[in-house]
Design brief:
Elements lengths: L1 H84 L7 H57 L3 H27 L1
Helix pairs in contact: 1-2, 1-3
Length: 180
């Protein structure tokens, strides 16, 4: 009777431990999938934000470049009109120097726009990279935590079986002591 009870409890212990390990592993896998889904969503959102900031920066630069170009053209037109009204040419003398100065200022303005754009794009890229590193580190921590929750089903089954067998034999021994 004792051996049968021990064997029965051993089988039950093995089965229940294996099922508990399977469920724990399923929960760990589900946790890993959820972590990956959250990571992918954060990545998608951050890429969209980065792309929007890139586009916005370039559009601002283009609009400012157009504005500066128009202002330079207007300034050149005023100089030419003033020179023409005075019967002078812009090919040499004061008019030519004024046109040259306007062109230099316009070139400097375009250079500054390009530098500002490059700095802004670098900042956007740097911020994106920093957030991406944080996201990857967070994902790794979450995946490691989930993997720590996983158990070996075979080991759980053997351990549960031995524990059940021991309990069954102890109970059978107790019955044997009571009957004598």
């Amino acid at each position: 009777m004792g051996a049968a009870l021990g064997a029965g409890m051993g089988i039950f212990g093995a089965y229940s431990s294996m099922e508990a390990a399977k469920r724990q592993n399923e929960l760990a896998q589900q946790s890993m999938r959820s972590s990956m889904d959250a990571f992918n969503l954060r990545e998608f959102t951050q890429k969209k934000k980065r792309d929007a900031l890139f586009k916005q920066t370039m559009e601002r630069r283009d609009m400012e470049a157009l504005k500066q170009s128009r202002l330079a053209s207007q300034a050149r037109g005023r100089v030419k009109a003033a020179q023409a009204a005075g019967g002078l040419s812009t090919g040499s003398g004061v008019g030519a120097r004024q046109i040259h100065q306007i062109n230099q200022q316009a070139g400097f303005g375009q250079t500054m726009l390009s530098r500002n754009e490059a700095q802004m794009l670098d900042r956007v890229h740097s911020d994106y990279s920093a957030r991406r590193i944080e996201n990857v580190a967070s994902l790794e921590a979450q995946l490691n935590a989930a993997m720590q929750q996983q158990t070996n089903e075979t080991f759980a089954m053997i351990s549960g079986g031995l524990s059940g067998l021991g309990s069954g034999l102890s109970i059978a021994g107790g019955f044997k002591d009571l009957s004598t």
